[in-house]
Specification:
CATH architecture: Orthogonal Bundle
Protein name: Cytochrome P450
Distance between the termini: 59 Å
Largest sheet: 6 strands, mixed
CATH topology: Cytochrome p450
Number of domains: 1
Family: Belongs to the cytochrome P450 family.
Number of helices: 18
Strand order of the largest sheet: 1-2-3-9-6-4
CATH class: Mainly Alpha
Keywords: Heme, Iron, Metal-binding, Monooxygenase, Oxidoreductase
Structural class: alpha+beta
């Protein structure tokens, strides 16, 4: 018996509904079937995947039968052929030489940088002075990625670079789901903005590459230093263009997602005082234990103690996963769990929708970090997958968790963040990653332990 259900609405109605409200559309289809056919053309049929079993087939069991396709083609215009957009053998080779960037000893060094940069931010936040949380978190995580991956300080250029990242993300998001992809060479206002942003980011990237070649010892323990010391399969150094692509990938995919998740976290804590109090209780207890022991643990050891803080981040990633949609395409015919899908089929997998399945999570719309008391393993493997899965799963998953947890802990140890009055309830904006539409202004209030 087939597990494919046909959507009852017309192709035209589906298109306009998705363009107007993609998240609402995906939630509406969540319980229509394990796989929902959008009744598009027989030449390029499109399906929405709701079942964790089918997600596992696509991302893991039969991943060699799928390509990222259109989404990679759009992102490639900005980040080139880096790890996020490379396919097949090229992707496997890149992932192999990038793995050492995320070894444990490097993660320990990155954790220290996260705490240092966050404490620098905490020192300049003013009691009672509203701040745009999206901009603040973007600049913080941008500075962290630049220091940890490239050993580069961005103090003077941080705002300009963050704006360039934002411009590339907005323009890419508009293009991914557009029916027509206009070449960047066409001088539309959006393309002009996009190309300017790429030039801004590239200028920084190539300047850092040149500096690393002049002073290789200074960059030896960074991702950039590793890339400069790595040879490809032919024994040749990695070309500057490929290094540029990996650096651009880290700048865009490596910080904007974490920044967005943190803004959602601050928003959720403001709305859920009981959750916030439990978080503060954990932070106060750990700080008191450290004072009693008279020892200051390193950042990585502190991360391992922050059990509830980590659960707060996990719950944020459940309700507001930065990667709200995963796209895959087939080249040939594929059979999955008894159903046959024709060549050139497109599949849209939405962690945002799947994570909100009441049948799995119970009261799924509620923000309850204690769900994770027993860990994510209590649910089907792909009922919760904020970092994707399979060989194309996020290579920086552990780094992202360490970064988000330590930032949350360091700032929440000092401040509560209260939403400025008069703002509406936060609305998710599904760009390349999921952010709060129009951002969120919040007021830092010093917290008494």
């Amino acid at each position: 018996m087939t597990r494919i259900a046909g959507i009852p609405t017309s192709r035209t109605a589906n298109f306009f509904r998705f363009q107007r409200d993609p998240l609402g559309f995906l939630l509406d289809t969540l319980h229509m079937g394990d796989v929902v056919s959008l009744r598009t053309s027989s030449f390029r049929p499109t399906f929405i995947v709701n079942s964790p079993e089918f997600v596992q087939e696509i991302l893991v069991n039969q991943e060699e039968s799928f390509r990222k396709g259109r989404s990679s083609n759009v992102l490639r215009r900005t980040i080139g052929d880096g790890l996020l957009t490379a396919e097949d053998r090229n992707h496997r080779g890149q992932k192999k030489y990038l793995k050492p960037v995320f070894y444990k000893e490097r993660l320990q060094a990155y954790a220290a940088i996260v705490v240092e940069e966050t404490e620098r931010l905490a020192a300049v936040l003013e009691e009672g002075v509203p701040v745009p949380m999206h901009d603040v978190m973007m600049q913080l995580t941008l500075g962290i990625i630049a220091r940890s991956m490239f050993n580069t300080e961005l103090d003077e250029d941080k705002a300009e670079l963050a704006e360039a990242v934002n411009d590339t993300i907005q323009q890419s998001a508009k293009t991914i789901f557009s029916p027509v992809i206009l070449p960047l060479a066409i001088p539309t206002p959006g393309n002009i903005t996009h190309k300017k942003a790429i030039r801004t980011l590239e200028t920084m990237v190539y300047d850092v590459i040149a500096a690393a070649k002049r002073e290789p010892q200074r960059y030896a323990d960074t991702m950039l230093g590793l890339l400069l010391d790595t040879a490809d399969e032919t024994g040749q150094p990695i070309p500057d263009r490929e290094i540029r692509d990996q650096m651009m990938t880290m700048l865009l995919a490596g910080h904007e997602t974490t920044a967005n998740a943190l803004v959602w976290t601050w928003y959720a804590l403001d709305r859920e005082p009981a959750v916030a109090e439990r978080l503060y209780g954990e932070l106060d207890r750990i700080r008191q234990e450290e004072e009693d022991q008279g020892a200051q643990p390193n950042a990585f050891d502190r991360y391992r103690k922050l059990t509830y803080t980590k659960q707060v981040i996990q719950e944020t990633l459940r309700l507001y996963p930065p990667a709200w949609a995963i796209l895959r395409e087939t080249e040939g015919e594929v059979t999955m769990l008894g159903d046959v899908f024709p060549a050139k089929s497109s599949f849209l997998i939405s962690p945002y929708a799947i994570h909100r399945n009441d049948h799995v999570f119970g009261d799924a719309a509620a923000f309850r970090p204690e769900r994770f008391d027993d860990g994510p393993g209590q649910w089907p493997r792909f009922a919760y997958f904020p970092f994707g899965g399979g060989s194309r799963g996020c290579i920086g998953t552990q780094f992202a968790m360490i970064e988000a947890v330590l930032i949350l802990a360091a700032l929440a140890d000092r401040f509560r963040f209260v939403s400025v009055e008069g703002q509406p309830e936060a609305v998710p904006e599904p760009l390349v990653s999921l952010r709060i539409k129009n951002g969120r202004w919040m007021i830092p209030r010093r917290r008494q332990s």
